[in-house]
Structures are given as C-alpha cells and as structure tokens.
Amino acid sequence: MSQNLTFKAPIGLPQGAAVRTVSQISGIPLNFEALTWKQINHPSFKENNPLSQLTVLQINEQTTLTEFNAILRYFARLAQSKGLYGDDAFEQAQVDSLLDYTLIEIQKMSFALVGPIYGTVPFIQNTYEAAKKDLFKLLQIIEDQLTFKTYLCSNRMTIGDISLFTSVFALYQYIITEEIRKQLPNVTRWFQNIAVQPVFQQNFGKYYPVSQEWQNQGQKLVSGLESSEPTQQQDKQQSGKQQKQQSQQQDGEKKLGRKELKKAQKAAEKAQKKAAESSNPAQKQEKPEKIQENKEKQEKTQENQEQSSSSTFNYFDFKTEITNTKDKKAVIENLLSNFDSENYSLWFVLYDKYEGEGEVLYMTSNLKDSFLQRMDSFRKESYGVLGVYGEEKNYDIQGVWMWKGTQIPEQTKNVPSFEYYNWTKLDLSKPEDKQKVFDCWCNLEENKSVFNGKVLRDVSLFK
C-alpha cells in the first residue's frame, strides 16, 4: 500500500488503542501522533473534523476519517484477506450490525458507568444502578450468541469483536466482578480470549480481573452538598441532575479524552516509536532485548523483596499503632529516627491534573477514591495518606506514602491511572522532606488541617 497513513488520538483513549490494534493486525503501517488538548481546541482542528472527534485518520492532506467505526471499516476493507470484515456478504452484514449495536447500546451504558469513576460526570445512584441493569440485559444478548462461538460474526475475529471489546474493557476493569462474570461465562471467555493476545496487551494494557466493584466514595459528598435542606428539595435537585445527564453524556467522550490527555506531550515520542516498531517486521529481532528487559525487571522486583524481607522493622505493628494512636507525632518521630532506608522508602505524591479537573470537590474525591480502589492489592506492602486539598476550582490530590523497597514497585505501574500521579522520593536528610511526613500524616482534620500550603478537604488512609 502506497498511502502514508497518520492516526491522531489522545494517549490512553480506548478507541485509539483499538485503531492501532487493527492497523497491526491488518499489517498496514500507521504513523501515530498524540493529540494534545491545545491542538483539539485550536480552530484548525475542526477544518476537516467539524464534530471534533478524538480519533482522526489522516489519509492525505485533503482527506481524513474521524468516526471510530468508519476508521475500523476502512482498515478492514484495505486488508480483506485478514477477514476483519467477515468472509462473505452475510458476515459483513453481521459485523455492521454488531458495530451499530455497540455504538448505540453498549457504549452509552459503558460511559454511564465509567464516567463517574473517571470523575467526568456526577455520580447519581439511581442512574448508575439503572445503567448496570440495562448493561446486563444487553450483554445477556451477546452471551446467548456466544454459546457455540469463539467470535461473534465469523470464525475469525472481526472489527465487530474489536469495537465491542473496546467498549467493555473498562467495564471488566472496574465493574464486572467475579459474581457477574459467572453469570456471563461466554462473554467472559470471549473477552479474556481477546485480552490475552499480545497485540491487545500492547495497546490496551494487561487485563486484571476486578475482585470488588468500584464504589462511589464521593456519594456522601454529592448528597452532602444539600444536607442542610429538606429531603424533598434534595429530590428535586437530583431530578434536575438526571435531566442534565443526557447532555453530559453527549459530550462525555470529549471530557473523557481530557482525562487521557495528561501524558500526551511527555509520551508522544515513546508512543510513536512503539507504534513504528510494532508495524515494522524488521523490528522482530529486538525480542531478545525485550526478554532481557523483562528479566531485569523481575530481578529488580526480587531484589526489593529480598531487601525488605531482611528488615527487622515490623510493618504491621507500625500501621496499627499510627492508625489508632492520638499521638501520631511520637510514632512518626520514632519511625524516622530509626528509618530503615535500605529496605523502605517514603514518597510524596501529587496528581497531575489536567484542564477541567480539580474544580469540583466530589469529582476530585472520586478520582482519588477510584485510584485507591485500584491499588487495593498493594495495601499489605504500603501505608499512605492521600487527600484532596485546596479550594473550589483549585483542588489537588496529594499525600505521602511509605512502602517496602527503595524504588517504585513494578506491580503498581500496571495499575490504571498510576502514571497520572507524580511520585517524588523523600530524602530524610533534608528537613523540608522530613517535615512533609509530619505535616501530611499528623494533620488529618478535614476543612482545617493544612499540608503543602492547602487546606485538607477529604482524606483517605491507605493501610
């Protein structure tokens, strides 16, 4: 193929991951450019993209495709031998049907459930629960169709499967627990069969089954906004929010894109290199280097574990004491004066918020709480305070953590949104770093305590 295709999308956008995946499966080279929010806001972005879609395929200087499913269809038709659009007219019709079903039905429910997790739309309990019920009914239709099938439209995977996978990936990360997975064994088999394929892991990341459904820790904050008013007034306000939900969902994809744009500029060169390597068969000889890199990571993790196991510090007793004592300062003084810096480390963390984030308290709290839930498997290895600090329109998520090992643990780097938090290792020889530990861990009174120059509004202990 002589065309030099360029694909533009924000880093982390699921639809962007899907397009890169289809490009690699079809064997069509694709240049990738990470979109920044500044570029999306620029008037020139709408010249060939009047709806401001976040997925843009530049075919040539005058021609672009901007609708996600249209881009998938384009690649599938360019590489007909791969069977991505089905092997005959009937299968192609089934693919079209599945693409429409996913776009019109599944994607709408997916956003209604995932939006509150990312803090892009308010959490409304009734709306959330209704969306869950509707989603289960929709997936039950897919469940029945997969009874005797590996894929939905053909004996081979098609863009219909890939589009549906894209819409349910976040749901399987945060919402679809083991209990639900047992009720949808065929859908789960289908999903896992796709998720483990290297090309999907490369673009979407590894899938880790969720053990506990995401819970809205900010719900008390939402209702608490009107806590001094009568219940009837609360009901009226909630009803008003529900009426606004439709308009929020219409621009939701764009808002979600803001969330995923955070690292675009920093990661652009890395993403371009990765996309180029994956589409170039000549790069296959680099596999031994990748194996060596993984080996080094494993050795590093093992070294951290061996170091921490040789320590005499009783982590469990420390976490119990600092959680329950009133004199936290004395506990911290004892910790720092006897700190085992060869086996443990302390870190200051600050969420790298993007435009539009950190403006509303309960949404910022949702970001914090959903991150902590995703870090749940790491509790045994760490202790930390993470809070929302600041004023309306200017909130920060920040805190101080301690964990086993002297580097950022490898297992945490696979946690969704971990890369949006900046971790700075504290040097206890510096008075200002030591003071951070005292200021953060001792001052836990909401709407009164101050840390790093900002008033604490909502705090969580990770223990």
From TrEMBL:
Q: Which GO terms describe its cellular component?
A: cytoplasm; nucleus
Compositionally biased spans, kind Polar residues = 219-231
* Protein's UniProt keywords contain Acyltransferase: no
- Compositional bias, Basic and acidic residues, is annotated for 251-276, 284-303
Q: Organism, per UniProt?
A: Pseudocohnilembus persalinus
Question: Which part of the chain is the GST N-terminal domain?
Answer: 3-83
Domain GST C-terminal: residue ranges:
88-213
What's the domain of life for this entry?
A: Eukaryota
Q: Where is the composition biased (Low complexity)?
A: 232-250
Protein's UniProt name: Translation elongation factor EF1B, gamma chain, conserved
Keywords for the protein's UniProt record, in alphabetical order: Elongation factor, Protein biosynthesis
